[in-house]
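TICKET: design request
STATUS: open
ATTACHED STRUCTURE:
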């Protein structure tokens, strides 16, 4: 597995921040955890769709957990011609009641996933595909 180290320039605007530049510096030994921490930090600071698009352009095979909702994730290798209602470009939702595991980078049985600070919806109606 190869992981990329990102060179990032953030520009702060009032209460938020946005991504100005994303460049791969070099390939290094696998460090998926560092990349996920960096990605989650960026997503929590900025407009998700803009940041995800920048990251996905640089790393087209990357899978990124959604920072707020445990059933969602971004798959950079997936590009919608027509983005589904309630989703964004590259965003995927696990089938109910599965949740996205940061450990395995895939949807898993909800009883086996630790969501941490991400919201874990237990009601089927809260999943975007059921709205």
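STATUS: resolved
RESOLUTION: sequence designed for all positions
ATTACHED SEQUENCE:
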């Amino acid at each position: 597995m190869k992981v990329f180290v990102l060179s990032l320039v953030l520009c702060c605007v009032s209460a938020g921040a946005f991504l100005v530049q994303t460049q791969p510096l070099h390939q290094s030994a696998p460090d998926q955890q560092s990349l996920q921490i960096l990605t989650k930090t960026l997503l929590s600071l900025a407009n998700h769709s803009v940041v995800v698009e920048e990251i996905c352009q640089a790393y087209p095979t990357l899978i990124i957990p959604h920072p707020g909702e445990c059933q969602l994730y971004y798959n950079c290798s997936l590009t919608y011609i027509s983005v589904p209602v309630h989703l964004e470009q590259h965003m995927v939702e696990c089938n109910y009641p599965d949740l996205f595991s940061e450990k395995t980078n895939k949807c898993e049985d909800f009883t086996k996933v630790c969501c941490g600070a991400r919201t874990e919806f237990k009601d089927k109606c809260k999943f975007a595909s059921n709205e």
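CLOSING REMARK: The helical segments are 32-45, 48-58. Residues 79 and 90 are 6 Å apart (CA to CA).
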